[in-house]
Amino acid sequence: MTSPHTPSDSPDVSSGESARATVSPAVRRRNRLILIGLLLVCLAPVVASYLTFYVFTPDSRTNYGRLVDPQRDVNPLEVTVARLGALEPEELPVQAATGESVTLSAFAGRWLLVVPESGACGEGCRQRLVDTRQVRLTTGRERSRVGRVLLLSAQAPEPGEWLAEHPGLHVLRLPGRIPDALFPASEGHSASDHVFVVDPLGHLMMRWPVAADPNKTKKDLMRLLKVSRVG
Fold first, then answer.
1. Domain containing 50: what range?
2. Whether residue 207 sits in one domain with residue 154
3. What are the backbone dihedrals phi and psi of residue 127, each rounded to the nearest 5 degrees, phi first?
4. E strand segments, the chain
5. Residue 69 neighbours by CB under 8 Å, 6+ apart
6. Do 42 and 117 fall within a single domain?
7. pLDDT tens-digit map of 100-151
8. How far is it, in rounded angstroms, from Cα 149 to Cα 119?
9. Are 214 and 113 in contact (CB under 8 A)?
10. pTM > 0.85
């Protein structure tokens, strides 16, 4: 009689041990590195979020200018049109004429870059006007959605010949002083040191810093034009 268990029926234990023994140290090292790499990939988002929140805390503000809170409704502001700037063909018409007394609502429907001036428009004032002109031009096709206003107080003298450099600039004159309640300035400064942004609905909503960087104000304006569904 033959034995019920032939040599071919018994498990080949030695072959498994032999296979493990033949795995080279280099292969085992590579497999270990792969495992470590997978663990790092899984942990990376957790570590990154921890570092971002506790170590490299980002600034929550994305705008360069300071948002005016609460926003000011400047639509009722009474002005006299000292000069109506030339409009480009694609711009919205203005419901006013030179010499006419209107409210600022006549210029609604577009974004307004407002430069207030309570005295003579000197070097700082003229530089702000140049900056707003250049920032508007760099918005390209969107520039028809943007208007510029030089807002003069009652006592401010008439602008000089340099005004010819700004054909699209609207010059408006107030019956009195520039109202601080509507045009809040930063501490230690006056409204005449800033450029203000009025939205198409007639709300003053942003104030750019004193001696603002045109490249940064452009980013603010482009962002507003991009996200806005009006104006």
1. 18-54
2. yes
3. -65, -40
4. 66-73, 78-83, 101-103, 111-117, 146-152, 169-173, 195-198, 203-208
5. none
6. no
7. 999 999 999 999 999 999 999 999 999 999 999 999 999 999 999 999 999 9
8. 15
9. no
10. no
